[in-house]
Amino acid sequence: MAKGYWVSVYPAISAPERLTAYDKLAGPAVQAGGGRTLSLLPSRGGRVVAHEAGITQRVVLIEFDSFEQAVAAYESEAYQKALVALPDGVERDFRIIEGID
Q1: If you average pLDDT over every residue of the chain, what do you get?
Q2: How far apart are CA 33 and CA 73, in angstroms?
Q3: Is the distance from CB of 71 to CB of 94 less than 8 angstroms?
Q4: Are the CB atoms for 45 and 58 separated by under 8 Å?
Q5: DSSP state of 50
Q6: CA distance 69 to 63
Q7: What is the value of pTM for the model shown?
Q8: Coil vs helix vs strand at 94
Q9: Which tens digits make up the pLDDT trace of 21-38?
Q10: Distance (Å, whole) CA 54 – CA 9
Q11: What is the rounded CA–CA span in Å between residue 13 and residue 17?
């Protein structure tokens, strides 16, 4: 079964410190849904090299055991509460993608 991934890129964050409430809710919701954070850059000290139209703002990659599990975690009540906490001034490009076996 192909894995599922959440891919989030944040082109604009006007007040990064305001993401705290979202992070506190989203982390446990992701874990409860079976997700594993593979990358949270650059906030955890990782390096980013941006090319073409790339940005060096926050990039998050989360892995799930299946695409269906990734969709279910997004649709969960716990994660929907986290989304409400996303502050104004945060622009996010979010995708759920299916991996290749």
Answers
A1: 91
A2: 5
A3: no
A4: no
A5: -
A6: 10
A7: 0.90
A8: strand
A9: 899 999 999 999 999 999
A10: 10
A11: 9
CB atoms inside a 10 Å sphere around CB 78: 15
Strands 90-98 and 4-13: antiparallel
Number of Cβ atoms within 10 Å of the Cβ of 88: 7
* Residue 77 CB coordination number (10 Å): 7
- How far apart CA 37 and CA 60 sit, in angstroms, is 8
Q: CA of 96: how far to CAs of 8, 27, 51, 53, 75, in Å?
A: 9, 17, 22, 21, 11
Q: Of the candidates 7, 12, 74, 63, which has an alpha carbon nearest to the alpha carbon of residue 36? A: 63
Degrees to nearest 5, angle at CA 92 with 66 and 20 = 90
User: CA 40, 43, 49: angle at the middle one, nearest 5?
Assistant: 75
